[in-house]
Amino acid sequence: MTDRVEPRPLRADARRNRDRVLAAAQEAFAAEGISVPLDEIARRAGVGAGTVYRHFPTKEALFEAAITDRVERMIAYARELATAADPGKAFFDFLDRMATEGTVKRDLAEAVGVDSPEHRKPAHDLRVAIAQLLTHAQQSGAVRRDIDIDDLMRVVKGTFLAANSANTTANQRRRAFAIVFDGLRAH
After folding, report:
1. Which one of 21, 27, 95, 156 has the lowest number of neighbouring Cβ atoms within 10 Å?
2. What is the tens place of the pLDDT at every residue in 68-123?
């Protein structure tokens, strides 16, 4: 057995810089895709290119970190809603935020269906958190009982893909998700 050395925690200023780089990267990747240069991300974050490279040696590493960060934030939000007094409202609030974030942030839409080693744990944790919201909403009578988490994830992923297709307007995206949400409601 080999001893695993845990990385040292970042100093507060280094953590702030890393967070600024991640936020700038998420914004840039959402707007322009992965083709945005790292120097542009550094400029948007208000740091030097060396700071970006110190935290993220490649653009791919930065993209992976941006996806993971976004998914972890969605997991935290889902867990926060898991004990809400109105499980149906909590479920649809979560889906609404996921739809909004996913259509604006391509990385979240990508992460919903991703199957890479770096994303397996966060994707699994997101799925578990969503399943819990779904189960609570079904038990409260707000969501139809004839779907399971696999059905829900397929529908969400398919809607993300359609909502992010070329020439789709914001109004069309909203309508697509409204139709999906209506179809999930118990009648």
Report:
1. 27
2. 888 889 999 999 999 999 999 999 999 999 888 765 555 555 555 555 555 578 88
Q: Are 43 and 70 part of one and the same domain?
A: no
CA 148 to chain centre: 20
Residue 19 in tokens? 């967070």
State the first-to-last Cα distance of the chain, in angstroms, to the nearest integer: 56
Measured in residues, the chain has a length of 187
Contact, 147 vs 184, CB < 8 A?
Answer: yes
Residue 89 sits in the same domain as residue 35: no
Q: Which CATH number covers residue 47?
A: 1.10.10.60
- 25 with 90, same domain? no
Contact 56, 19 (CB under 8 A): no
Longest dimension (CA), the chain: 56
32-47 residue pLDDT tens? 878 889 999 999 999 9
Within a domain: 4: no
Q: How far is CA 140 from CA 9, 106, 121, 133, in A?
A: 42, 32, 29, 11
Tally Cβ neighbours within 10 Å of residue 71: 22
Print the domain residue range for 170. Answer: 66-184
